[in-house]
Design goal:
Organism: Fusobacterium periodonticum 1_1_41FAA
Shape: elongated
Largest sheet: 4 strands, mixed
Number of helices: 5
Protein name: GTP-binding protein EngA
Radius of gyration: 18 Å
Number of domains: 1
Distance between the termini: 49 Å
Order of helices and strands: EEEEHHHHEEH
Helix content: 40-55%
Length: 124
Amino acid sequence: MLIDCNRCEKYKYIIEELFIKEDEIIIFHINKKERIEKHKIKFDEITDLEYKDPFFLNPYKPDTFFYKNIEKCRLLKIKLKSKKVISFGFFLEEEEAKKIIKAIKERKINYEKVQEEIKEFQNK
């Protein structure tokens, strides 16, 4: 996702994608060279970024870029190992994110189980 910054017309802020690996969220945040080597940011560090990096902005403060351009910035892709993609808002509470991850994992397990049962039934 490419975001144009209101405050600086030349600046383009690139957030590639959020990936879920088990229950850990990884943010690929390519425009800062020092972060390229260490992209892995845990849930509790997401909030800290609002203060450390003025371009990783809080969606709830009316003066931020995110708030002013909420339609443009709202969705980020969340990928799972199953290659299924869901999209939702920029910031999630840890509990909320865990519920979503759990629901998707359960759906995947149920889907696989049903597929196996169908195959067994067809083979009889």
